[in-house]
Amino acid sequence: MAGAYLKLKELGPKVGFSILAVVMGATRAYAVDVTPEQGIPLLSGDPDTVINSIVTTFLWIMGLAAIIYLIWGGMSYITAGGDADKASKGRVAITNAVIGIIIIALALVIYRAVIGGLGRGVVGVQQGTTSTY
């Protein structure tokens, strides 16, 4: 069983670097198509659109990382093979990943609510009108 654990431990960084290489390769391939007239799609538009794109992209990437960590924790827990220490580490990883996913989802919801509220102005006050009392 120890041999399988060592192989799994050696496989982790290899899979991580493979995913990183694919992502970096896709980024480079996409960057080749960018022309000066077109600009970078993530950074094009008015400042509100750029900030919205950056925050949304960042939160989605963090969510994906949390899901990958959840899967890793689940695999660690499943392959514990009776080793209480490894099972405990797997449970902690699962718990942390679920907490991270909840925090990321709440951050996205709060961000959208705040941006939506700012875009409409103050609740109950119509923009562009004056009231006399």
Q: What report would you give on this structure?
A:
The structure is a single chain. The chain is mainly alpha-helical. The protein has three helices and no strands. It is elongated, with a radius of gyration of 23 Å. The termini are far apart. Mean pLDDT is 75; it is low at 26-30.
Task: Detail the topology: elements first, then pairings.
Elements: H1 2-32, H2 47-78, H3 84-120
Helix pairs in contact: 2-3
Strand content: under 5%
Low-confidence stretches: 26-30
* Biggest pleated-sheet summary: none
Rg, alpha carbons: 23 Å
| Structural class computed from helices and strand pairing | mainly alpha
How many distinct beta strands?
Answer: 0
Task: Write down the secondary-structure element order.
Answer: HHH
Tell me, rounded to a whole number, the average pLDDT.
75
Q: Portion of residues in helices?
A: over 70%
N-C termini distance: 81 Å
Global geometry: elongated
Number of helices: 3
